[in-house]
Design goal:
This protein is α+β, with helices and mostly antiparallel strands. The protein is 31% helix and 19% strand. The chain contains 18 helices and 18 strands. The protein has a six-stranded mixed β-sheet. Helix 11 packs antiparallel against helix 13 and helix 17 runs antiparallel to helix 18. It is globular.
């Protein structure tokens, strides 16, 4: 089915491009008078319902359909949304949120404390099989609910309509920041269970936008302004999101922007300098060092990378600087940490010793020590259509040249790539990246490396969390628990630093590659205030037509 649909995607993209002069972004005067129509392209999301929205595509939609307790500014500053106040106990185990009264979902249901209890219970319920439920793992009763022992979430209580009480199994003085993730969004009663397809494809939220019709899979998603929004209303009338062929999404986005079809676009890596030269003078170039990291997932439990020495050999063999200068033409910077520089209180440049500089002698020494012999087959997976092909090929060639490995490239559409990473039998390395869901070190160190975020399905062995490499070290997990329960921010940061060093330097659980500098094109000729938000998406709710 995926192959059959690919042909339709390509045909659709050609038709859209040919009709661009007739329907370029914001050209329709009637639409412009109502606030304007903003157009963009993405790949097919995994989900747009908060219970399982996970990658950037689905999260973009969910963030605009739903409003939770807090929002976050591009610099990581927490902004109250529905949370009028938050208090925590001295041990960090009990949080009480006062919720703004009088707001509603777009179907008229009230957004109250019970809507949060309902939503979070829905996410963590075993039957939902949510890939992002693990973000709630610290709430009391999560294990019993997620394992199917109960259908109640013991740690949640709607004290009254505007008071939500959350009890945690262990102290966490940054729990409020975690609620920025869409998994913590409230839902109406009509949401039903996690497998409610009607709601999955047409979520009813309380955000600045609402769905126009249902998600047309592999075709489009259309959002319209929610005029009953409980906060400052969006200025755009509509956002038209075209779902593109996953095999060449960034190329189609770039072509669409050039043709006037899209108002926001990513670009293929080789086109970045050309695009900057053309569009920066027009004030249509958006560039930001974001809160993220690009890295290789190393599958820790399966040969040939089931030892730290083997993983270190891979890391030492990669010349990040050469690829940054050559393939990326100076537009990406090598990374030597998991935590991004934007998290200044915990950032440790060079904490990944093997990342600082290519060392072919050490790479060969560690490869021999670990049994990673020349001729060893190394599977190298990556998601297609997002401009990764060039640098993936460069890394593969370095691994062949330095270690003599037989590298097998395995390109898959994003949704299929995520699924294959979850398989217990998957081995080798996968291209991956992480953009912050919420502004804490824990948002990197737990999802990517914590044992609890493997979240293995007992029946299938599928890793339902984001720790796809299945790294597990009890000492590391204890450090994360200790950090969360530490009230003093400086002391907490010091423990997080210790945890990162253990996982990334001692164990080489994953392999950092590049810091996350993001580039986009924006149609500033027809729209004002177009920026990149904390999640690397356009700030749809703040954009206005000229």
């Amino acid at each position: 089915m995926r192959g059959a649909k690919s042909a339709k995607w390509v045909a659709g993209a050609i038709i859209v491009a040919l009709s661009a002069t007739a329907c370029g972004g914001g050209d329709d005067k009637g639409d412009a008078a109502k606030g304007g129509v903003f157009r963009m392209g993405i790949t097919e999301p995994t989900a747009i319902d908060p219970f399982n929205a996970q990658e950037s595509e689905g999260s973009l939609v969910a963030h605009n359909l739903f409003t939770g307790l807090y929002k976050v500014e591009p610099n990581g500053k927490l902004i109250p949304a529905l949370a009028e106040s938050a208090t925590t106990s001295d041990d960090g185990k009990t949080w009480t949120f006062k919720i703004k009264g009088g707001t509603k979902f777009t179907n008229g249901e009230p957004v109250d404390a019970e809507a949060f209890v309902r939503a979070w219970t829905r996410v963590a319920d075993k039957k939902s099989a949510s890939d992002v439920a693990y973000h709630m793992a610290g709430i009391e009763g999560y294990e019993d609910l997620n394992s199917g022992k109960t259908d109640k979430f013991a740690g949640l209580k709607a004290v009254d309509a505007t008071t939500l009480e959350v009890k945690l199994s262990q102290g966490d003085f940054e729990f409020d920041k975690k609620t920025v993730h869409t998994v913590f969004a409230p839902v109406p009663k009509v949401a039903g269970a996690g497998d409610n397809k009607a709601f999955n494809d047409a979520p009813i939220g309380n955000g600045p936008f609402k769905m126009e019709g249902s998600w047309e899979h592999n075709k489009k998603i259309t959002l319209v302004r929610n005029d009953d929004y409980g906060f400052e209303k969006a200025k755009l009338a509509k956002v038209e999101i075209t779902i593109l062929n996953p095999n060449n999404t960034s190329t189609l986005e770039y072509q669409g922007f050039q043709a006037g079809t899209f108002d926001w676009a990513r670009m293929p890596t080789p086109q970045l300098p050309v695009a900057k030269a053309k569009y920066a003078p027009k004030n249509q170039w958006v560039e930001a060092d974001t809160s993220g990291i690009n890295y290789l997932v190393a599958f820790n439990q399966n040969a040939p990378l089931n030892s730290p020495d083997a993983r270190k050999a891979i890391s030492y063999a990669i010349d990040r600087e050469a690829i940054a200068k050559g393939v990326f033409q100076g537009m990406q910077k090598p990374a030597s940490s998991v935590l991004p520089p934007s998290f200044a209180d915990v950032y440790q440049e060079g904490v990944c010793t093997t990342c600082v500089k290519q060392d072919t002698a050490k790479a060969k020494e560690l490869a021999e020590k670990s049994g990673l012999k020349p001729g060893t087959v190394l599977d190298f997976g990556y998601n297609t259509g997002s401009g990764h092909e060039e640098w993936v090929q460069a890394v593969a060639q370095q691994l062949k040249d330095v270690l003599g490995l037989e590298v097998k490239l395995n390109g898959k559409p994003f949704k299929e790539a995520l699924s294959e990473q979850q398989d217990k039998k998957t081995a080798g390395i996968w291209r991956s990246a992480w953009g912050a869901d919420y502004p804490t070190a824990d948002n990197f160190l737990f999802p990517l490396l914590g044992t609890g975020s493997i979240n293995e399905d007992p029946a299938t062995g599928k890793a339902q969390g984001d720790n796809r490499g299945r790294y597990s070290n009890p000492e590391y997990d204890k450090l994360l628990d200790q950090a969360r329960a530490t009230k003093d921010a400086a002391a907490r940061a010091a423990i997080y630093k210790q945890a990162e060093k253990l996982a990334v330097d001692t164990d080489q659980a994953l392999i950092p590659l590049w810091k996350r500098t993001q580039y986009r094109l924006a149609n500033t000729a027809k729209f004002d205030n177009v920026k990149m938000d904390f999640f690397e998406d356009p700030n749809l709710a703040e954009i206005s037509a000229k």
